[in-house]
Write a structure and sequence with these properties.
The chain is α+β, with helices and mostly antiparallel strands. It folds into two domains: 212 residues, no CATH class; 59 residues, no CATH class. Strand 3 and strand 4 form a beta hairpin. The chain is globular. It starts with a helix and ends with a helix.
Length: 338
């Protein structure tokens, strides 16, 4: 009985200690925000060039895309060279993922699942890693300060010197200033106007409209390829159809074909904006929550974004799979079925 009382008192004491610690940290976070002003979240619809004097195509989202590709390639190679008759570790995890994805593909595409699976599985893995890359600390907060026109005039090209940026040493070389990691979150709001425009070094690929549209276009191009492979030239009859028993029905079928053609382009827009909108909005929410209250408050939103990232990858994969399968079904067989 005495032991139960001691355990109860010790348990309640632990709860009080943890509660007090959380309250103290939250108050400290609030006081810190009042004492040290935090700049508003960095918002940009597309990737930004990392180097102001370098190639404009080499943006922060391109850099992160390359890193995501390397991660996926390394994961594939590690899995390949760790295959054993009795699976364990990474092989177990990857087998579970592949089996789950193949089961989904088979439930939608049936006998065509083996043909579509490499494409849709690659889409799923790329999108989910891209989505979750934006949740890694430092992505979107570590970067460079690009000078504005006024700063370019102050620092002639070719000159390099040291400078103090909010009490921390930064290197200025020509027209680029490398910001210390903490400055993106803790520098005064006037930092952008004093030191130039802040550009993150890393950006989640899914939060770049260029990447999501490129993925959408590639997916819809594959839809047309699968349609031609299965149906040949008859595939294009759903877009250009002037058949019918009379002039009225010929006009109706031609109009429906135009609608089908428009819908193909509409799918690209829907694909691109759906993925971009969800991931970009999630990043803005997380940045806003951290801006308002740095400690504890963003945690539920991080958990939500992990779930949203998974759902969006799954939705993109399933829609691509459905479109692949629909492209292999001729309108004639569809009509006979009904």
């Amino acid at each position: 009985m005495g032991k139960k009382i001691v355990d109860f008192l010790w348990g309640s004491t632990q709860r009080k200690v943890w509660t007090s610690l959380i309250v103290i940290l939250m108050l400290a976070s609030f006081v810190t925000k009042l004492v040290l002003p935090v700049p508003p979240p960095h918002v940009a619809l597309s990737g930004e060039p990392i180097f102001s004097t370098g190639p404009q195509w080499f943006t922060n989202s391109v850099l992160t895309t390359i890193i995501v590709d390397i991660i996926l390639l390394l994961l594939a190679l590690l899995t390949r060279f760790s295959l054993k008759e009795v699976p364990s570790g990474l092989q177990n995890v990857m087998e579970a993922v592949v089996e789950a994805l193949y089961g989904l593909a088979e439930s939608v595409a049936g006998k065509n699942a083996s043909k579509f699976f490499p494409w849709v599985a690659t889409i799923f893995l790329f999108v989910i890693v891209s989505n979750w890359s934006g949740l890694i600390p430092g992505v979107g907060s570590i970067g460079f300060y690009h000078p504005t026109e006024a700063h370019s005039e102050e620092a002639p090209a070719g000159e390099s010197h040291g400078a103090l940026l909010d009490g921390q040493l930064a290197m200025v070389g020509g027209s680029i200033m490398l910001a210390a990691p903490g400055n993106a979150q803790h520098a005064p709001a006037a930092a952008e106007s004093e030191h130039g425009k802040f550009v993150p070094l890393f950006r989640a690929p899914s939060a770049d409209l260029n990447v999501t549209f490129a993925l959408a276009i590639a997916t819809m191009v594959m839809v047309q390829i699968w349609g031609v492979r299965h149906l040949g030239g008859a595939y294009f009859r759903k877009f250009f159809n002037w058949s019918g028993p009379n002039a009225f029905m010929k006009g109706i079928n031609a109009f429906v074909g135009i609608l089908e053609l428009i819908s193909e382009f509409a799918r690209i827009i829907a694909f691109g904006f759906r993925l971009f909108g969800n991931i970009f909005a999630g990043e803005i929410v997380l940045a806003t929550m951290a801006f308002l209250f740095a400690f504890l408050l963003p945690i539920p939103f991080y958990a939500l974004e992990v779930f949203v990232g998974f759902v969006q990858a799954l939705v993109f994969m399933m829609l691509a799979l459905v479109f692949f399968q629909m492209s292999t079904i001729s309108h004639g067989s569809h009509d006979e079925h009904h």
